[in-house]
Amino acid sequence: MTLGVDGADSWGKRLRYSVTPLYTSAPLQRLSAVATKRVQTRSGNGELRYEVGQAQCLLYAQCAPAVVYSQGRENLGTSVAGLPQANGATGNADEQGNDLATTGFIRRAASTDPAAPGGPFDDLLVAVPLQTLYERMTAARTLP
């Protein structure tokens, strides 16, 4: 599946995305599909807390159906030519986590401070809200 966009961020790296598998095939089973993408951020004291979703995604407590993100200017990622970019930082655990993530992602303020909780960070991430997806699909007459 593709997004139908150029696929590159401002730094010449591939945009990345992760979609809940149940939201990739038609017809969408709206009454039983559980969105599985979770996004955490760091509180003022560095503790992780949920910004989107929760520890367990359930039919009555949905998470996000998809996230789209850039790995930022520095560290990690893949160039549009398909070449892996080196990790030039140490201690950038949050960026490394996003690099390997399939369901749990981190979004937080940019930082170059290696002593900050989670280390240096410049990833940019947006979660697609489930309600927004359903509204757009309804407007396009593609939601059963």
Tags for this model:
single chain; 144 residues; alpha+beta; three-stranded mixed β-sheet
How does this model look, in words?
With 144 residues, the protein is α+β, with helices and mostly antiparallel strands. The chain has one domain (16-139). Helices cover 12% and strands 19% of the residues. The chain has two helices and six strands. The chain has helices spanning 93-100, 130-139, and strands spanning 16-19, 38-42, 48-52, 66-70, 104-106, 124-128. The strands form two sheets. The chain has a three-stranded antiparallel beta sheet with strand order 1-4-6. Strands 3-2-5 form a three-stranded mixed beta sheet. A hairpin with a 5-residue loop joins strand 2 and strand 3. The longest helix is centred in the C-terminal third of the chain and has 10 residues, at 130-139. It is globular and about 50 Å long. 30% of the residues are buried. The model has no long low-confidence stretch (mean pLDDT 91).
